[in-house]
Amino acid sequence: MSRFKFTAGPWNVNEGVEAFGPGVRPTVPMEEKFKKFAEVGLSGVQFHDDDAVPDMNNMSEKAIIDYAKDVKAELDKYGLVAEFVAPRLWMDPHTTDGGFTSNSKEDYDFAMWRAKRSIDIANALGAKNIVLWLAREGTLCAESKDPVEKIGALIDSINDMLAYDDKIKVLIESKPNEPIDRSYCGTIGHVMAVSAATKDPARVGAVLESAHAILAGLDPANEMAFALKFGKLGSVHLNDQNGCRYDQDKSFGVESLRGAFNQIKVLCDHNYGANGEMVGLDVKAMRTQKPEDQYRHIQNSMKIAMMLEEKVAKFDKAFQAKCIAERNYEALEMYVMELLMGA
Ligand code: GLO
Ligand code: MG
Fold first, then answer.
1. Does ligand 1 have an atom closer than 6 angstroms to the CB of 71?
2. CB atoms near residue 14 (< 10 Å)
3. How far is the C-alpha of 121 from the C-alpha of 71, rounded, in Å?
4. Ligand 2 mean position to 282 CA, how many Å?
5. Using one digit for the tens of pLDDT, what is the confidence trace for 225-267?
């Protein structure tokens, strides 16, 4: 049994499309994903706005809400909750140059329309959070935008979301690059600063994804800790990453077991989840994986997280205190290694 409630997004079960090759697995219908998510032990689902309401660009505001209500009924059927809704502002032609920081007023308005519809969809699904993964908010050509002005535009857009709904929380998912070259919210520190500059900082928090911290050259557990200190860690995307390259979304813990242990440790030590926060697994199956067993990466990630929870429960705090008192960090480090290796 875990202390955490785990979630994943429909995009975490996919066809295996990448930049150098097409899909290799058949598309799985949404309801089938819900059914499987429940079977493998997830508590909830994370959504992009158009995962929930695929044709939303061509629908009225009322039709979007009605459609989302039907999705909610399907979630109920499988005993799942909706964790968040994220406007997918990286696929549409209107967001080629970003949305909230686009140089085009029309594109900015489109992004705001999607953000507000995301809030409507979140309310229909019973989700308390909007997630902003700011995929294209930044530059491909550094001189194409005034970064000071654009960070202001991002803050304005969040203020507009907060004004649209007086309960919704906005969580920014930091990432330093990809698909954009230079992003405006690369780390948790950036997210905290943006949060503090909004009209209601208590409703603007962060999502920390392990791989994104590694891409920024930072330690995921330390990044989580930073947001936890400010009471602003609204969600996490656990996964793993083999160094600084494209965003890999590997199963949690498969590259750095000690790094993964420290993520679970900081979450446990600081009672993450006590206010309803969930643990998202933003993991991708290898392209080699066959459709018959294409939920395995989610199951593995959850299992590793739970095994690490047990390691955290076993962690000998008295021995840690002794090592700290004697300033014998070599002994403490070896203790952690033995704990993880089962020696
Ligand atoms: C990609 C992100 C992405 C988001 C998701 C939710 O790098 O991690 O998977 O988490 O779109 O907004
Ligand atoms: Mg993510």
1. no
2. 17
3. 10
4. 5
5. 999 999 999 999 999 999 999 999 999 999 999 999 999 999 9
